Amino acid sequence: MTDCYKSKITELMDAQYAPVFTQIQRGIEREALRIDDNAKLSTKPHAEALGSALTHPSITTDYAETLLEFITPVSQDIDELVTYLRDVHRYTLNNIDGEMLWPMSMPCVIANEEDIELAQYGDSNVGKMKTVYREGLRNRYGSLMQIISGLHFNFSLSDQAWPLLQTFFDNQDETADFRSERYFSLIRNFHRLGWVIPYMFGSSPALCGSFLQGDMPYEFEKMGQGTYYLPYGTSLRLSDLGYTNSEQDNLSICYNNIDNYVDSVNQAIATPSLKFAEIGIEQDGVYSQLNSNVLQIENELYAPIRPKRVADSGQTPSQALKAGGVEYIEVRSLDINPFADIGITKDQIRFLDLFLVHCLLWQDKPMSQEQRQEKVDNLNKVILQGRDPALNLMQSGQEVELKAWMAQLFDALTTIAQLFDHHLGGDDYKQCLALFSPMVNDPQATFSGQLMAKLKQDNLDNTPFGIEQAKKFREQLSAGDYQAISYQSLLQQAELSHKQQRDIEQADSISFSQYLEQYFNDARA
What confidence score (pLDDT) does residue 3 get? Predict the structure, then answer.
């Protein structure tokens, strides 16, 4: 990165800018499959002690009934964030009758795709809509996609930080407008540099052959009894095997500002799909999907990063953004770290802090269509070939070695680490970069490289390795003490969530078809 950039951001050493670095707000959403000791999907329903998947604030399900999702409150303290997430894991493991949590992004052994049950949310209209949406995903893309796990990282600066950054950037706009503009700049820069996340932290270079169900879209190599892998792959979860949608290939989601973004998302939601129309929508009260458009609802838009705002009751995500601006961003390209008991480490979080602050501070320009395609091509190359030592990417129309670009990035992040350590005290961020710096020149030091080395060195299949880790994590977590939240508090949350679900169900006064009609009418308003 340029000396001019590093010189400019060094001005942030001034004590007045401390809140930019000391008051970062973070949240984590981690997905994990419930499995038995043989790495088979659980056939049990969501446990009563885990509360209502519809209303519990910390424990829910995602697409499949067996796919748990753990959600932390927003926190400015990394230790507190990780401790809370670990307590929720601990409580869950103590209440799922000896089952384990699969510690990897790509699923465990799949006997029959038909055995994958969609998540159930009760008899309320909102609960039925959540399940029908998932029914639509199954009919559109198959059930296997519904049991892939990921980790989402939510990131924002505090209200106090934004006026300070306006001073830094000499910006005279309304603070809310400035905040949204900078978040969209962050998002564009993340798209340009987003290949870094699967390169470093991609942890799904291999998978169990049962997931392929006879489909071989890539030139896999085989090891052991049934493990398939790509020699230089990093994140099969982010490939065409995972969360992709060919119907979205022709969409042009614009990240230049809120209006452009909301308009392009709404256009995608309103775009009919001849392919999905063949599925049908409803027959005799049984729904196959919410509608036959390219996107049923906004959540179906697959993106590595999203602008977000907590929506008020009755608001769609886009309506919330339009009304109040961007509140935080959600990074969605993280694989589950199979070496960490809760799927992520503190140093990964610190690296994300550095990376996202860099994306926020780096001045950029709106993206052209050619630049959008360039970032898509770079991401796909890294997903499938990221550990190829000779891999080149495209940087502003010029071919560049991946390792040379990584070196540029780490040079810039070194300055930002100095800012964090200066304002927070200590050297945690400097040590974080030192920990991950071998990845710059050595692809085998990446998470995917470490995983493949472990499998080959110990002559392990992907599944036995996953079982080994799951058992180890179950033992570690089950035996630990609650620190951020007590067992009793989590039990009370579960009991309250069941009551809240019953209240929602009793409050319904219209049919499900009327509810959907009203929902989509309001969404178009």
Answer: 75
